[in-house]
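Example 3.2
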Amino acid sequence: MEFGGAEALLLRQLCLHMAFPTEREGQAGGGTLLPAYLSGESRLMLENFPELGFFRDIVFLFKMLMVHTPHRPLGLHAARVHRVAARLHGVAARVLRIAACFAWGCSLCYAW
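Structure, written as tokens:
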């Protein structure tokens, strides 16, 4: 997955609010710390906001489940999302089901 502008803006706001550094200092090349915060390479953000890691993983899982191949039609992917959501509990299951409704239309929501 690619680190986009929306992720950068969100993490920059959180860093500003919590007074976390956004740039690497003292290292050759410097650069931004924002992708390291979201990936877990730098644990500072995920220790203070563990839900960011959970939502990052849910988004990754959902994007992985939506990948279409010539051998698997859309219906098989929807069934796979339903099986994964059935194993999840609480907020994670609700987020996955809501995302599925937006991706495939609300007709899928009636089964849940």
